[in-house]
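User: Can you recover a sequence for this backbone? Please restate the input before giving your answer.

Assistant: Of course. Working from this structure:
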């Protein structure tokens, strides 16, 4: 009996000594079990800056991925990329509405030449094909875009071309909105990922 009592006491003492640790570790263990690990924030987590809409936006543009206009010659341009949220999550079915001037620098304000919209796919990818826009007085080369998550707030912004001589003279130009350029056959390619606030 005495022996048994001794073991008991020893166990009690052990438990008492361990108690503070148990008490302090318990909440941590519980947290580790229930909390999601912090998601990795991608480099492009800053929301895409918004820009002035300009005077030439027209509602109800047609849904089309090819904005080329017959009889208008210019350098072909394929613009593509992704629409994601600030955590890098693709925004499926995001609207990408585009308008820009023709290679001579004129906007079609009567019809919908060089105006159209596409929807991002399930991976948030979008693409449209057009011609490299021209220049009009006071501005560097740019493409107007309105991007909107389903039921989200629209982001109105503009895309720019790297190394365009007009960039440095344009007060609206923002280097964060530069496309990454490449070529595909005789066409130019521009890629840009839009990051929308969730
Ligand atoms: Fe413009």
């Amino acid at each position: 009996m005495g022996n048994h009592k001794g073991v008991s006491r020893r166990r009690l003492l052990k438990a008492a000594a361990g108690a503070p640790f148990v008490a302090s570790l318990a909440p941590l263990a519980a947290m580790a079990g229930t909390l999601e690990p912090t998601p990795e924030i991608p480099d492009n987590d800053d929301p895409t800056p918004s820009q002035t809409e300009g005077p030439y936006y027209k509602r109800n543009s047609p849904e089309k991925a090819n904005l080329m206009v017959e009889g208008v010659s210019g350098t072909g341009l394929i613009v593509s990329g992704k629409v994601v949220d600030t955590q890098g999550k693709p925004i499926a079915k995001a609207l990408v509405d585009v308008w820009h001037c023709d290679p001579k620098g004129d906007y079609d304000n009567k019809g919908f030449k060089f105006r159209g919209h596409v929807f991002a796919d399930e991976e948030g990818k979008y693409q449209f094909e057009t011609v490299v826009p021209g220049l009009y007085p006071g501005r560097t080369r740019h493409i107007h875009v309105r991007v909107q998550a389903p039921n989200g707030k629209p982001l109105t912004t503009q895309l720019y071309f790297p190394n365009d001589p007009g960039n440095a003279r344009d007060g609206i130009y923002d280097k964060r909105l530069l496309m990454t350029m490449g070529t595909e056959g005789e066409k130019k390619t521009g890629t840009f990922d839009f990051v929308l606030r969730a």
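That completes the design. Residues 54, 139, 142, 144 surround fe (ii) ion (CB under 6 Å).
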